[in-house]
């Protein structure tokens, strides 16, 4: 725990505890996982998560605009100091990969526009940080996240849990935040 003393007078001081708030993003074009968690005095706390959806009936440009607006809204509402986002890894469908890459670019743009520190993690890094095993499957990540951080009792879509996992990975990797 990093602390510093903030002088109030010459006779005493109050300890200052470093706070870090991260917006975690699981990128997609149809579904985007967004989560906000913070770390105070070494403990992670869940604040918010959602699965933001766009309709396939909209043009690609309209979907990108909606995603950008939602990321901007979330950043403005939650005031994170950093953004953690999953790097893309596609083996098969290159058409899907291109669309998701463009959406990811919009998300990175919004983070940069808001002067956030941006942290990027591969699926392997996320699996290792959350489960301790790089070849863990999606179920392993879904099962482990609630053991690492207290979540609301409502049912969560896997994109939300993935976004929480991305944010937790940031705290695991970036020891100075």
Descriptive account of the structure:
The structure is a single chain. By secondary structure, this protein is α/β, with parallel strands linked by helices. 32% of the residues are buried. The strands form two sheets. It has a five-stranded mixed sheet, with helices on both faces. It has a two-stranded antiparallel ribbon with strand order 1-2. The chain has a single domain (3-173), classed as Ribonuclease H-like superfamily/Ribonuclease H (Nucleotidyltransferase, domain 5). The chain contains five helices and seven strands. The termini are close together. It is globular. Helix 1 packs parallel to helix 2, helix 3 packs across helix 5 and helix 4 (138-148) packs across helix 5. The longest helix has 20 residues, at 94-113. Helix content is 42%, strand content 28%. The model is unreliable at 1-17 (pLDDT under 50).
